[in-house]
Design goal:
Number of helices: 8
Subcellular location: Cell membrane
Membrane topology: Single-pass membrane protein
Largest sheet: 35 strands, mixed
Number of strands: 74
Keywords: Glycoprotein, Leucine-rich repeat, Membrane, Receptor, Repeat, Signal, Transmembrane, Transmembrane helix
Radius of gyration: 42 Å
Pfam families: LRR_1, LRRNT_2
Helix content: under 10%
Protein name: Leucine-rich repeat-containing N-terminal plant-type domain-containing protein
Distance between the termini: 155 Å
Length: about 1100
Amino acid sequence: MVSSYLTLTSLFLYIVFIYGCLPDERSALLQLKKGFSFSKLESWQPNTNCCQWRGVLCDGGSGNVVHLDLSSQNISGSINSSLFNLTSLRVLNLAFNLFYGNPIPSSGWDKLGNLTHLNLSNSGFQGQVPIGISHLNNLVSLDLSSYGDAGMSSLLELRDPDFEALLQGISNLRVLYLDGVNISASGEEWCGALARSTPELQELSLEACSLSGGIGISLSKLRSLSVIDLEGNSLNTTVPDFFVNFTSLSVLRLGYCGLEGFFPKDIFQLKNLTIVDVSINPMLSGSLPDFTMDSALESLVLSRSNFSGFLPDTIGNLKSLKILDLSNCHFYGKIPYSIWNLTQLMRLDLSSNNLTGLIPPFQSPSSVVEIIVAQNQISGPTLTGYGVRGLQKLTELDLHSNSLSGPIPETLFNLPQLRTLLLWQNQLSGQLPEFSEASLLNNIDLSNNQLQGKIPMSLFRLSGLEILSLANNNFTGFFQLNSILLLKNLSYLDLSDSGLSCLEEDDSSSFSSFPKIATLKLVGCNLTKIPLFLMFQDQITTLDLSNNSITGNIPGWIWSVGKGNLINLNLSCNLFTSVEGPSFNFSIASSMVLDLHSNKLQGPIPLPPPNPIALDYSDNKFSSSIPNNLSLYLNFTLFLSLARNNLSGEIPYSLCNATFLSVLDLSNNGLTGAIPPCLMGNGMDLNVLNLRMNRLQGSIPPQIREKCNFQTINLNGNRLEGRLPRSLVNCHALEVLDLGNNELTDTFPNWLGNISSLLILILRSNKLYGPVSLPTNIHGKNFTFQELQIFDISSNNFSGNLCAECFCNFKAMMSSNKDSVQSAVGFYYLKFTTNYYHDMITITIKGFQMNLQKILNIYKSIDFSNNNFDGEIPASIGNLDSLYLLNLSRNALRGPIPHQLGYLTQLESLDLSENHLDGEIPMELTNLTFLSVLNLAYNNLVGKIPEGGQFPTFSNTSFEGNEDLCGNPLTIPCRKPNAESPSASNKPVSRVSTEPSWEYIFTGMGFGGGLAMLIGSLMVWEEGRKWHYNWIDDMLETLAPFSRLRNTCGDGRVSDVEGKEDGYEELIDAGTRRKFCVYCTKLVFFEDVMKIQYISCECHLDER
């Protein structure tokens, strides 16, 4: 019996030795392979040793399969249940395969009781994680992740069972990776489940698991954690202080978690910490500590967070640091010299901070591969120090958007591994050096500098060069386009506004040898013709030849450039006069963006290529009506501009069929008829409608769609009438509403104040009437018009007092609201591009109308001029200290100028002319240091004109028409307060004498009698009278400036300050032209001021 047992045992061991694995397990593996649609398992063949198959490892004693690793084998299909016959498996790895849409097998897992490591990550499994996995009691490592792999978006979820149920049976776990699995649990739930079920957990990775509600305190019990990765969840919490107690922590990844508060600085000091990533948490603040020499940090990534402060000198103690990414933070100060002590550093990114000073000079060879310090305030030369030559491994240098100056050193171009050199948007000057032809550079962008001289020929011997931009510099000389013939890999070339004049040789034989360029920009290169080599460019996607002097026809072959790949063609700002091709038919082209604006194109509007994304024909001389069939070509068009042509006729209703339009600009033409209601109604989805400066009639369409997306409506300068449609309140995103210069008749539309996004409201030059007030609010508070920045209701018939409450509501005009960066009001009509539509409005400064095309959001103005407002100027207007322009002229305002206007410290233009304002000019107005336009003319102001601030720069026209004003710049000097004779200085003097002075009376009678005889004779003698008038006028022209007399205009009347006396008569000869006034005056003293009171005026005009 024993002998028989030994014989069977020997036979079994012989079979294992010969065949390597047990037949049943080989059969199970072959069944498993049959379930796969595709795999790389060619070695899995019958009658072979399965222990030698790819991915299979057997136990040396028993022959059982214990390790099955089929990761990254491109396996697709399903998993056969025979897998679960491999009951001795300890390791199963099916990661990075293609099981798209298939679930993880739900049964059989209880047979794999020996399994310690299970990895099904990034293989496209879908559905519920099976409860059977929780029966794997010996499991030490579990990885079901699938987050972040393109094309392998996992739909795994833990709902039934949930996260806690999964963990209950696998309490021996040390490693748990569930990235991308939908757990949908709060902080207390998932942290509590981990603390209860996996007390010995060491590595935890739950990226993008839909976790929320913070990090529970129960997580602090897992004191053995060395890896914590919670990236991409909505934790919206602070970083727990108890992380400092995780002494084994080596990896901490909390990026994009909505973290807030301050990052515990002591975490940086953990001795085993190698990786810290808290990027993309804009509300997370913190600063860097003083690092010690024993720090193990290898990667420190704080990008796009709110970290700030100086970079400590001790950063040089991080001897193991390989990655330092502090980009898009708020660090300031200088880059410490010690940063180049980081001899292991491979990537340095300090871009988009507020760093200043120089880039520290290199002192020794470095392993750094990438240096990115773009978008700071770095000054001085690019790189200095002998160590620059030691950057032998540097592949990318990005210092763009700084204040670097001086020449570019030759050593940069000669660095052996450098491939990307980005120095654009600096102040670099001098001539580019010649350099070694051995350079590997493939991306050079030196645009927007002050580089001079000629282009070095070595640039055109860089055989690997793919991108070259030299735009916006001061180069000189000619650039032969044939120079790029040797750059066989060149795909992007931008020489725009570089100072170079581009030329093309006439050798057509070389045209086909040009590199296949994808983007070519030759803006402002003094071209006089379109380069002919473009006929052979079949891969070009962007061609920009704008702002040159190209004349004649746009050739027909231009529409086939790129062989269907052309998506952006810009021929604007040239001198083209016509378009070559039969009936202007562009249908053979496929341009997505076609820009022909600012040429001299004439005739009817040409039909565009089919379905362009953007079409700009503005600023030409097209003279026709808009074709009815134009909309057939606009099925996917977002932008259409036919502005500033000579178009006539009505706007065709068919344009409403272009339902994708976001911007429609037909302004500055001669269009007539009514506005098609469909442009503002259902069916269209316009963001910008600009019909200004046409001859449109009728009313504004009343039925504006409920889900209105308008950001700009500009109907200025037409002949529209009627009321403002109340349905405008449906436009909740409206920023610009310009209805000026029409014939609208309505009351003030205070209901527009409920549009919280409204920035610009222009209703000037209409027939609007009544008071201006805010809508009634039953809750007691009013928040209307808070974002308003430009408010123009001038030249209407508004009346009543100025609305003091309104000025309190204009929060956007107050400095407390000036937290936005400077930008222009407009609309991006192509997302992820620079295609931008700028709104245009008209404002009035110093009586002149000015068009503003690029409206900065910092420009704030109020124009209530030429209405019938009365009452006093409210003091509350002084709160608008961001105001640039204030015009209240030509109203009936009275009372003093409020001194609070002196608080408008940003004011550049102030016009209060032609009102009934009285009192003195407030001295506080001298605080307006930016004031360049001031008009207080034709009021009743008195006293001395202030002399400080900007006042000495204003002319007398700013103050004329105020008879009791004196001082510079007027010719009327102010009387000194103590000008009495010494003998009378100690005697009390009455301001107005009541006793007659007989000396002056008799003298006056004598003078009057003689003058009467002279005038009597002149009245009979007509020729003598004319001679006399001319003589008086000539004399007064000489003496008037010294005698406080003035040349008048208008009707010649000069009113006395106190009012005309009874019996006043105006005598004007018929047919007269020039006039001067002869005054009878009396002097009075009133409050220490001498006044000239005008009793009568006789004006005669020169007939000479």
